[in-house]
Specification:
By secondary structure, the chain is an all-alpha fold. The protein has one domain. Helix content is 73%, strand content 2%. It contains 13 helices and two strands, in the order H-H-H-H-H-H-H-H-H-E-E-H-H-H-H. A two-stranded antiparallel sheet has the order 1-2. A hairpin with an 8-residue loop joins strand 1 and strand 2. The two termini are 17 Å apart.
């Protein structure tokens, strides 16, 4: 489930990049993404399990924090980071989240984290470093690094809160309420009456290998909502009923590998031997993590 989710997230990066070429801002795309996911998931809950709409008072604050921190802030600080850093660098820093999850599990959760998990974490970060090529004259912006670190903390919080929440709530209703509170957050930050609706109606080229194909921006946004948000987020949360947050976080590191390959095949972005080696190291780390029962 996590591998499928990571693959969808990786493909979604390129789809979102094409959608953003229309002039739609990153924050507005995220706002539409959260609202669309909220509507879609809530419709599924209403039809299939209406009783799950009930929120006990003791659970209300937890769901609000999950939506605002685990869903909205991960994306907010990631987008703030990429305004000051290269996307690959921001993504590498964000994927310190699984390391933080393992540290939390070992320190505060009093869980036994096997040595191979720490080895898998180290290999994953090494592979990601090879893929983004940190040695090639990267200039780091202090504030950008801070934003990316906050995103990493929020990502770790998302995994830990979801792992706890699925013990008493099904994944679909959990994500529906999570996106509900995330949508409320974005509505306050950037009201809907200022949303650039005209941009969504425009048609854009799919660029690269598909440059001859043109689609309306709303179709790309629909992909981002359904296959780039609803499906992968629900899969990750559902997987936490079967694997720990630490293992889920490591497995999710497949996302940069998929994103790099899709960008190479679709947008014709370069993919050199060092990046291929990094991808192999990450895949090896994922395999190692799966052996840690």
């Amino acid at each position: 489930m996590v591998l499928v989710a990571a693959t969808l997230f990786g493909i979604n990066g390129t789809v979102a990049k094409v959608a953003l070429s229309s002039g739609l801002s990153s924050l507005r795309l995220t706002e539409a993404r959260c609202a669309g996911a909220f509507i879609g998931l809530m419709a599924v809950v209403v039809i299939t399990r209406p009783r799950a709409l009930h929120i006990p008072r003791r659970e209300l604050l937890r769901l609000a924090l999950f939506g605002a921190v685990g869903v909205a802030l991960v994306q907010l600080f990631y987008f703030l980071a990429i305004h000051r850093l290269a996307i690959a660098i921001a993504l590498l820093i964000q994927y310190l989240g699984p390391v933080l999850v393992a540290l939390w599990a070992r320190t505060f959760g009093h869980e036994h984290v096997r040595r191979r998990i720490w080895l898998a974490l180290g290999l994953s970060l090494t592979g990601l470093t090879l893929m983004v090529q940190l040695w090639s004259g990267v200039s780091l912006d202090g504030l950008g690094v801070l934003y990316a670190l906050i995103s990493a903390v929020a990502y770790a919080a998302y995994l830990l809160m979801a792992e706890r929440a699925v013990a008493s709530r099904d994944p679909v209703s959990l994500m529906a309420w999570g996106f509900a509170f995330a949508t409320l957050f974005w509505t306050i930050v950037q009201p809907w009456w200022s949303f650039p609706a005209r941009t969504v109606g425009e048609t854009v080229s799919l660029q690269g290998s598909l440059s001859s194909v043109h689609l309306p921006v709303w179709a790309l946004v629909l992909w981002v909502v359904v296959l780039g948000t609803i499906a992968p987020f629900t899969l990750v949360v559902g997987a936490l009923r079967h694997v720990t947050a630490t293992r889920a976080g490591i497995t999710a590191m497949l996302e940069p590998v998929v994103a790099t390959v899709v960008a190479w095949a679709w947008l014709r972005e370069s993919l050199d031997p060092a990046q291929l080696a990094g991808a192999v190291v990450v895949l090896g780390a994922l395999g190692l993590a799966q052996t840690a029962r």
